Amino acid sequence: MKKIVVIDYGIGNVKSMVNALESLGVEAVLTANEQEIMTANAVILPGVGAFKHGMDNLNQRNLVPVIHDYVGTGKPFLGVCLGMQMLMEESEEFGSSKGLGLIEGSVKIIPLLADTTEKLPHVSWNELIEPTKDRWENTILNNTKVGTDMYFVHSFAAIPIHPSDVLANCSYGNLSFCAAVHKKNIYGTQFHPEKSGIFGLRILEEFIKLIN
Amino acid sequence: MSKKRLIARIDVKNEFVIKGIHLEGLRKVGDPFELARRYYHDGIDEIIFMDAVASLYGRNNLFHIIEQACKEVFVPITIGGGIRSINDIEMALKSGADKISLNTQAIKTPNIITEASRIYGSQCIVGSIEAKRKGNSWEAYVDNGREETGIDAIEWACKLEQLGAGELMVTSIDQEGTKRGFEIPLIEKIAAKVSIPVIASGGAGNPSHVANLCKQTKVSAVAIAAILHYNSFTVGDIKKAMDADGIKVRI
């Protein structure tokens, strides 16, 4: 059976990710153990809440070098919500704090990105937009139709430096923000596939299919 | 304008889904897990489980229901009723809930909102307001609509936002269970004052009640109960009616 590690670093509701994976017929292990992470077929970094709190928790458990080592193996890696934001180099939440630096770019609070009168946090189902034609081919969005709604809950957004790292966009008010990233074996989704009904589960299913 | 969320509110007493009028005279209407599963398959955007009598007894009995529901229902789940401490919140999140709704305890010790949103993030903390008309204003109630507090509901909404709540759920005790439509002036005032999302609850009797509320206020989400529990309309019926009325929803 394929084994997926969901990194347990004391943040947010990780149970729903485990449940979603188990419903798709894989073994989901909630752990912060280096050995378990390195031997997993795929790894998911979940998380909600504050960037600095998330990075502090990863650092306390010495997980930053472990995640870098794991990503270096070329096996699939997925960051969800805060887990995607932490892939970036830094965040400007309450002063600057350093991220995992796996994808070049930063994280900024939504009102700084656009003049919006929309409510914050952005708590909504919202449509995924394909940034360029056929960008989703052979990715975790391979089986997703443009315009499919996913569940978002966040006040900050990631801004990758390289447009080629952007897998999907989304618009909120007059703002267009990055909804998913992809660079080699690294994926990130700002939305919660584990909370986005059957179409969300379909994305996790495609992620599982990346396992060799 | 972002999509409006349609939320099924499932009030539970002991093991049963119950429904009353003005939060009183509770009748059994079904099994909470079965209803949650049905609404999920019908396309509901979120589910709120409320332990209707928890604050009377000082405990929440829903954790095992949430544990079961989270294995099959893959949309956000909120739990409320009788949550009194950070430890209760921790247990609720561990059982699989995504958000916690707080009313009685927030009135007693407002700092719990700040502390909880600092630990778990504001997106996790829903400030719940039970409001009852009093002349030209509304008063906040606690203990599932049983006890008055003397606090103005609109001022309390602003205070909850300041304290760090990520969303507000506003239940009109006057309209709750009546199927006569929402307390639009109350929702309109609160949604215009706060910058966080507002969930309106209490009074949905047909799809046009939901549509009217969305058109006349800056509400972000609508919680419905009796209209679904009694099979008057399905999730699909309501969403289709909203869509036909020009309101953006996830279909």
From TrEMBL, chain A:
Record's protein name: Imidazole glycerol phosphate synthase subunit HisH
Domain Glutamine amidotransferase: 5-207
Alphabetical keyword list: Amino-acid biosynthesis, Cytoplasm, Glutamine amidotransferase, Histidine biosynthesis, Hydrolase, Lyase
Record's subcellular location: Cytoplasm
Catalytic activity: 5-[(5-phospho-1-deoxy-D-ribulos-1-ylimino)methylamino]-1-(5-phospho-beta-D-ribosyl)imidazole-4-carboxamide + L-glutamine = D-erythro-1-(imidazol-4-yl)glycerol 3-phosphate + 5-amino-1-(5-phospho-beta-D-ribosyl)imidazole-4-carboxamide + L-glutamate + H(+); L-glutamine + H2O = L-glutamate + NH4(+)
Gene3D superfamilies reported in the protein's UniProt record: 3.40.50.880
Lineage of the species this protein comes from: Bacteria, Pseudomonadati, Bacteroidota, Sphingobacteriia, Sphingobacteriales
Gene: hisH
Pathway: Amino-acid biosynthesis; L-histidine biosynthesis; L-histidine from 5-phospho-alpha-D-ribose 1-diphosphate: step 5/9
TrEMBL record, chain B:
Catalysis: reaction(s): 5-[(5-phospho-1-deoxy-D-ribulos-1-ylimino)methylamino]-1-(5-phospho-beta-D-ribosyl)imidazole-4-carboxamide + L-glutamine = D-erythro-1-(imidazol-4-yl)glycerol 3-phosphate + 5-amino-1-(5-phospho-beta-D-ribosyl)imidazole-4-carboxamide + L-glutamate + H(+)
The protein's Enzyme Commission number: 4.3.2.10
InterPro entries attached to this UniProt entry: Aldolase_TIM (IPR013785), His_biosynth (IPR006062), HisF (IPR004651), IGPS_HisA/HisF (IPR050064), RibuloseP-bd_barrel (IPR011060)
MF (Gene Ontology): lyase activity
Pathway it works in: Amino-acid biosynthesis; L-histidine biosynthesis; L-histidine from 5-phospho-alpha-D-ribose 1-diphosphate: step 5/9
CDD domains: HisF
Annotated keywords: Amino-acid biosynthesis, Histidine biosynthesis, Lyase
Subunit (UniProt): Heterodimer of HisH and HisF.
Family: Belongs to the HisA/HisF family.
The protein's name in its UniProt record: imidazole glycerol-phosphate synthase
